[in-house]
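#data-curation
PF: Archiving a pair of folding outputs for the training set. Convention for this channel: one message per protein, sequence first, structure tokens after, nothing in between. First:
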Amino acid sequence: MAAGWERRRADMETVTEPIRDWLVRELAPKPGETILELAAGPGDTGFAAAALLGNEGQLISTDFSSEMTEVARRRGRELGLLNVEYRTMDAERLELEDDSVDGVICRFGFMLMSDTEAALAETRRVLRPGGRLVLATWRGPERNPWVAIGGRILTARGFMPPNEPGAPGMFTMSDDGRVESLLAAAGFTDVLIDDVPVRMPYGDVDEYVTATRDTGGAFARAFNEASEEEQRAITQELAEAFTPFEVDGGLALPGLALVALAR
């Protein structure tokens, strides 16, 4: 999926800019600090923090996928950033010393990890005393039709399995209680949770399908398994379901992120 994310990077960053701004503002990076980004993807959220660290500070940009790490490296090179280290790393087994970073960013990563508890415990381990974690996940499906509708249609047609409670997925960290419980178990005691709304613009349903096949792994796998006739039927069903979100020039699909700061 790295190639698709690289193609769609600019569009995705524009849409999620309010989330990035919240995370960086609440993290409040300071010159000279070391900041770790987990599941960095193309890297732009961490790069916004890197710009505040100065030459004496450092961003460690990491992703589980080596291909995605290279996407971030290319983007950092485009931006001319010299205070970034790029590493392919498993968030559940961080190859970093205890108490070695001042802050951690994870945008839409923890919810997809096979062992979120282990990843958060590792995050706590590498944070220095007084260090901060900022994260983003998604609220429930009713607040995120941009992804929930497609998942519902593909599940109903037998191309995706129903979500198992507690399994990794888009909505596994969608409520305050779940997030607070996970953070407390990892040793975080001071937690702030907020909401950030976004809008996903598409020219039409065909553009939605193309973009989602580029960036949505589960959707892409399921859609690609369908025959051409079934793909046409899925696309038509999506178009009908998206009718309430039609605007001049296309579609505006709403989304709502859960964002959190923890110490």
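PF: Second:
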Amino acid sequence: MKNSLALALIAAAAAAPIPGQTVMAPSHQPFSIAISTARTSVKAGAAVWVRIRLTNTSDHEINASVARAREVDVNYDYDVRQVGGGTVDKLDKHDMSKIIQTVVVRALKPGEATEEESRVSRMCKMIEPGEYAIQVSRPISDDPGDGVVKSNTITVTVTP
């Protein structure tokens, strides 16, 4: 019960927009993001991977390009929070952008989807045992005023 309440609170906080950031209503989003993981429990220090599925929900082609730096697509923002209030140290996304190793220019037609994996533990230190709530978001365009689309939230347990 206590963990369920904590997860609900984290999910609500994660869904809240960051000041100055617009989150589009699902009916107006040009794409959707769904995340999952093959391993919901990992040992402290192990890699944590998320599978990201980006689906074009619009009536026009969208940019679905990938920019990888150290096994992470820097086109996404990674929100990781320790369930129960612990803080998570995060690397600066802009610092990661300076070491981009691979760029794949890709467009999705209406209804098309693409999947990739990102090593979220490269961006966020998940070394303390406990439960971590993970959500990713992606800007709709290069214009910050256009807002972002957020994924669902998943939970990964880090064990000693």
